[in-house]
Write a structure and sequence with these properties.
The chain is an all-alpha fold. The protein has 9 helices and no strands. It is elongated and about 55 Å long.
């Protein structure tokens, strides 16, 4: 049995092993044995840390959410004023969320699993709430507060839609074009609110 102090590290190792598996292939073919091999652990050891594959999946969703919240906080800390915040967040959204092939493959696998299993859909719903809340808090102005949730949902849909298009047809979208489109959409949201 593993020492208690190693449990968080081993769980993290297993979770990110699942990430690597999902980045390479479809979730329906990935077994706990595959995750164990990717983590460099014996198959039976996985069950000490997680009871089911769905539990590992749910932990991965939480870990991804935490990773990008931490990344966002770091980006904001390094940016100066609110305008710099918005530009830094736009860059992160474009680079990390639209043009990150591994993250997109993992995310689409997670979404498909979420359609099928409540244990996965609950953390995915929390992930999307955190995503929208972050966009609302950083990209939308204080006076946009009343419509902030719906505006943030539109931005999430735009970013995820661009990611999906780029995954299917990489020639359809370039980084500068994506950044301009997201920025233009954000400006349009603000204009509609001001007008």
């Amino acid at each position: 049995m593993a020492r208690e102090s190693n449990v968080p590290q081993k769980r993290e190792q297993i979770v990110w092993a699942l990430y690597n598996c999902l980045a390479k292939g479809g979730h329906e073919r990935i077994t706990v044995k595959d995750i164990a091999a990717q983590a460099g652990l014996a198959h039976g050891v996985i069950h000490y840390y997680f009871k089911t594959k769905d539990e590992i999946v749910a932990a991965l969703v939480v870990a991804i959410t935490r990773k990008y919240q931490d990344t966002m906080a770091q980006v904001l800390a390094e940016a100066g004023n609110k305008t710099d915040h918005a530009d830094a967040v736009l860059d992160l959204l474009v680079d990390a969320f639209i043009f990150n092939k591994d993250l997109n493959r993992v995310f689409y696998n997670l979404v498909q699993m979420g359609f099928e299993r409540a244990e996965v859909s609950r953390p995915l719903a929390a992930m999307l709430r955190a995503y929208r809340d972050t966009l609302e808090g950083v990209l939308l102005r204080d006076e946009d507060a009343q419509d902030g949730p719906s505006q943030a949902a539109v931005l999430v849909a735009l970013i995820e839609g661009m990611a999906l298009q780029w995954m299917i047809d990489p020639q359809s979208l370039g980084r500068d074009q994506a950044r301009r489109l997201v920025k233009k959409a954000l400006q349009g949201i603000r204009r509609r609110h001001d007008g």
